[in-house]
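To the structural biology subgroup,

Please find below the input and predicted structure for Pentatricopeptide repeat-containing protein, which we are adding to the shared reference set this quarter. The sequence is reproduced verbatim from the submission form. If anyone notices a discrepancy with their own records, reply to this email rather than editing the shared folder directly, so we keep one authoritative version.
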Amino acid sequence: MAPGTVPLNIFAWNQKLTKYVKDGQSQKAMQLFQQLQREGVRSNKFTFVPVIKACAGLGTLEDSRLVHKQLIQSGYVVTWNAMILGHVKCGQGQKALELFQQMQQEGMQPDSVTFVGVLNACASVVAIEEGRCVHQQIIQSGLQSDVFVCNNLVDMYAKCGSVEEAWRVFNKMPSQDVITWNAVALGHVKCGQGEKALELFQQMQQEGVRPNSVTFVGVLNACASVVALEEGRCVHQQIIQSGCESEVFVGSSLVDMYAKCGSIEEAWRVFNKICHLEMWSLGMP
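Predicted structure (tokenized):
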């Protein structure tokens, strides 16, 4: 520290770290953390929150290992899960899988949150073989009936293109919620099976499962893929009744569906309505 400089307390260090991470300057955050250590400032648990996010933003496994080691030395119970989920959130699925391997090599047992993070990592990098291995670990851990874990298993298989395996997990679940149905329906859309996705949309409602905005986006994509204009109009009516029409992703999917089904006039009507709603929400006439 330069002569005459007033030393920062840990609260001020934490504020600076958080600001760097919030501004997307992960490298500067890590440099600041290293400076903090050089100057002998004792970190607290709030220091490590932005530092973990900075590691995830940089995607460097070595930094992650060093930070995790310091967490252990500091006596804070964390967070392999936070590290894994942070890397997944930042699009570093392969790094998350490496961390998953490392945590087990160091004798740490994964829990349901770990498995959810790793399944998301597998889905993000289309690593179906790794996903199958994780599935076996889930069974061995006795978590194969955990709805939260199973929803992510279904999603992983669907996003990796194995709808058949997604269905096997789906059918073994003690119960299915809208998230489960969305995962298999979107899997069929991704695999070019739009008609099957539309059938599932009808079936889920017959079974009393209420669609949400994600469901509507998926079914509109299915309508667009098979040019099912009448079905798309019926879905549009349901969207209006559910109050989801003003949601950006739903509105955009409606415009896309009408355009791909050849009804440019209806696409424009939805587009203009969305623009009007956005202007109204901003207080514009």
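Summary notes: Residues 264-281 form the longest helix (18 residues). The CA atoms of residues 126 and 160 lie 5 Å apart.

Regards,
Lab coordination
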